[in-house]
Design a protein that fits this description.
Elements: E1 5-8, E2 20-26, H1 27-32, H2 38-41, E3 45-47, E4 53-60, E5 76-78, H3 97-111, H4 122-126, H5 133-148, H6 150-158, H7 163-197, H8 208-234, H9 238-244
Helix pairs in contact: 5-8, 6-9, 7-8
């Protein structure tokens, strides 16, 4: 999980049964317990409710384990074999993900008979947000317009219109709408994003350049969508379209 140990170490292996449990705490927990020097917290015993005693084996650097809108609170890690449900594996770049996943699943199923393993990649899970709505809507609008104007396109092509002229005629309106939307959305989006970030204790930097860069990216997607559909209509056989009409 790429957690950084500032003092002490990881959980200790338990060769013998012991009533004392090992825990790892973060910086906030160490400060809350009165240890400004994190090294002095290592090895200290903490008594919880009942008769359970815990030994601090390490202090971890603070990290956000909740929403960035909340400050980091004291945190302690305990270990229990019965509570292990997830296995996180870090791999390098440019690797065969499918082969690694298959090998991990096979190894776990061999070691733990009857276990159900469902592998997934964390970065793909996080990026699985539905961010394609605008592109799909634009594609539907362009496709509909091209279909409605198919007869007009065929007639213009027969009387001498070039493919370049047809693409320009069909694309001009949509490109104009994209730029109008960009001029409105970029400043409003930047302002709304800046105000939204004020709700978080830990926040990323924001700049107008980032908003412009997002608009440029969406513009490229829009142009690709528009030109691909209009070019397809401009290069179609006009005789076939008119015959269908």
């Amino acid at each position: 999980m790429q957690l950084k140990v500032l003092a002490g170490g990881n959980f200790q292996s338990k060769a013998t049964a012991s009533a004392i449990e090992d825990i790892l705490i973060n910086e906030q927990a160490a400060i809350g317990l009165g240890f400004r020097d994190y090294a002095k917290a290592v090895g200290q015993l903490i008594k919880t409710s009942g008769t359970t005693q815990m030994r601090i084996t390490g202090v971890l650097k603070n990290f956000n384990y909740e929403s960035p809108g909340f400050p980091v609170s004291p945190l302690a890690f305990r270990t229990s074999l019965d509570a292990c449900n997830f296995l996180y594996i870090s791999v390098g770049n440019n690797v065969d993900r499918q082969a690694i996943a298959q090998k991990v699943v096979a190894t776990l199923q061999t070691s733990f008979h009857g276990i159900t393993v469902q592998p997934s990649w964390l970065d793909e899970d996080l990026q699985r947000a539905d961010d394609q709505t605008a592109t799909v809507s634009l594609l539907g609008l362009v496709t509909y317009t091209v279909q409605v104007k198919r007869k007009e396109i065929s007639i213009r092509k027969i009387i001498g219109a070039t493919e370049k002229q047809l693409v320009s005629m069909l694309s001009r309106r949509f490109i104009k709408l994209i730029f109008i939307a960009g001029f409105i959305a970029v400043p409003l989006g930047f302002l709304a994003g800046h105000l939204f970030l004020q709700n978080f204790v830990v926040r990323t930097g924001d700049s107008l350049f980032s908003a412009v860069l997002c608009f440029a990216f969406l513009l490229c997607i829009g142009l690709t969508t528009i030109i691909s559909q209009t070019l397809r209509a401009a290069t179609a056989n006009p005789v076939k379209d008119l015959h269908t009409e």
